[in-house]
Amino acid sequence: MALTTYNNTVNQKPSVLDSIILQGPSQVPFLKWFGRGDVNAPKHAWITDRLRDPKPNYNLEITGLEEDTEDTKVMLDNVTQIVKNEFGLSRKERSTARYGQKEWPYRVGKVGKEHAKDLEFNLLGLQNDSVFDNYVPGSDTTEARMAGIFHFIPSEHRKDLKDANGNPTVLTYDSLSEIIEPVWERGGIEDESFMLICGTSVKRAINRFAGDQFFRKVSGKEKFDPTLFELETDFGTVQVKIHRLFNQEKLRDKILVGKLSEARIMFQTSTEFTEVPTDKTAKFGRYYTDLTLEVKNPDYFACGEGLK
Question: Is residue 272 part of a domain?
Answer without folding.
Answer: yes
